[in-house]
Amino acid sequence: MPTEEQLKEIVRKKYSEIALQDKETNMSSCCGAGGCSTEVYNIMSDDYTTIEGYNADADLGLGCGLPTQFARIKKGDVVVDLGSGAGNDCFIARHETGETGKVIGIDFTPAMVDKARTNAEARGFNNVEFRQGDIEQMPISANVADVIVSNCVLNLVPNKNGVFQEIYRVLKPGGHFSISDVVLIGALPEGLRKDAEMYAGCVAGAIQKQVYMELIDANGFENVTIQKEKAIVIPDDILKNYLSPDEINSFKTGDTGIFSITVFAQKPINQNNCTPGGGCC
Length: 281
Fold this sequence. Notes:
The chain is of the alpha/beta class. It has one domain (about 5-265): Vaccinia Virus protein VP39 (Rossmann fold, 3-Layer(aba) Sandwich), CATH 3.40.50.
C-alpha cells in the first residue's frame, strides 16, 4: 500500500483531472476516479437538483450524500466545507446562512479551488471564499465555525483521526458537523483494498463503520447521530477491473457492505482544560 504522502499525491493528481471533467463523466465512475463504467448512472451521490441554492455548474457529481440538507444551518452562521470541490455544498450553505453569514470552502487541489472561485465570482457570492489546504491542518483559526459540512472526503484522507481533531478545534463550542462519508462493514477484497485508483475513488480509503464512529466519540464530540445511511453497490463492469469473476461473486454474496452515512455530532458547549489530541485526555 502506498505511504500517506503517496496517497495524498494520488488524490491531488486525480482530483486535478476531475476538476476538468464534466459531471456525467464523474458520476459514471467511483467518485470520479475514472470512466470505468459502461453505463452512465450515479453510483454514490444523491440528487441535489431540488435543493435551494443548488448551482449545476458547481456540481461535479462526486458526493455520497446530502450533508447540507441535514446540517441545521441558520441565518448568520459561519459554515466550513471540507473538500469543497467546485463549490456545490458551499453555495447551498450560502443559501441557508444568507448574506449575514459566511461560508469557507477548503480543498486540497488547486485546480478545484480555482474552479470554485470562478463559480463564486460569476454569481457575485462575496461571502463565500475558498482556501487551498489540507484538512488535516486546516488554514483556519480555532473556534470559528458554527457548522462544518463535508461530502465524501474524509475517506480520501489517510489520517482520519487528525481530521476529527481539526474539526473539533475549528468548531465553536456548541457548534456541530454534518458529514457524509463512505464506510465499511466487513473486509474489502485485497484487489479493491490495495488499488490506488480505488483509493482515489473513495472505496479503498474507507474504514470500518464502527471505527469511524469510535473516532468521533474519542475526539470529544457529543450527541452523535447517524442522520442517513444507504448501501452502495459497485457495478460488475467496475469490479472486473480489480477482481476475478470468482472474487466478484464472493464479494457480492459475502458479508462485506459498503455504505454511505451522514453523521451529525456536536462540540460540547462547556470545555474542559484538555482538548482532544492534546495528549492529556
